[in-house]
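Issue 218. Parser rejects a valid record. Input:
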Amino acid sequence: MAAEPFPQDRAGQRAFPIILVSVAMLALLFNNQRGMRSPPMVWATWTVLIFGCLPMATGMVLDGWRQARARAYGLTALVVVLAPLVTVAWVPGGKAWLNGQPRLLLLAAAVSGGLMLLGVVHGRVDLRRWGVGLGDWRWWLPRTGVAVLGTFALVAVWFVVDPAMRGYYPSDPSARESIPGLLVYCAILGFYMVGWESFWRGSLLFGLARCWGPLAAILFGGLPFFLLHRGKPETEMVGSFVVGCLLSWFCWRGKSLWPGVILHAVLNLSVQVAGYGMM
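Output the parser choked on:
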């Protein structure tokens, strides 16, 4: 069953999606400010901050606004997240600072995550309404296992028929140099996917579905998800819209973002490994 919109009054229902869409636009703006030339651990942590911590902290403020503790934890988490983001995006020399301070970014992500956990425990905010819980795991877990096996088969065929995929992956120079470098990069990608999917299959999907219904939320998120795949092989970019919508439906049906994290991570890891094996 879909969660009830918050708040219940009409003005609140109008404001709720406006706030969510505004935060989504802010996250995309921060994403464009960073660029992709940073070390892998830096851009992975940056993604966790802008696509994971920022929208989730906003969601906690929205759902916990009437509770003093939840409001305080949520607002403090937002400050912790926004401080390094604003510094990097708009303070002169911020990007150079970013590349040399991955630990501080990790600290910001850890502190904001801890504050949100306190909001859940002490502020009684239910982040399951944003897809963070396990949801209907009896439904999605076995189906995710089948989809993982299908992903391996898909990637094998994909790399045989599309030379552009073989030329593009592994997507980072460090992953092309050695197997240890590949494994480290794959581990970083797994961390990256937690932040990435907590936005597309978490806060944006579940938040907008509470106001507009699941179909509108799935289609609304599908377009920017597709556009953010620009620069990748053509078959991957074209397929990203359909696959993204299907993945969103799967997570909505399972009431959890975690199948999205698992399947997207498996897909990314598979193309990295396949690309390395075919170099």
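Fixed in the parser; the record now loads. The radius of gyration is 19 Å.
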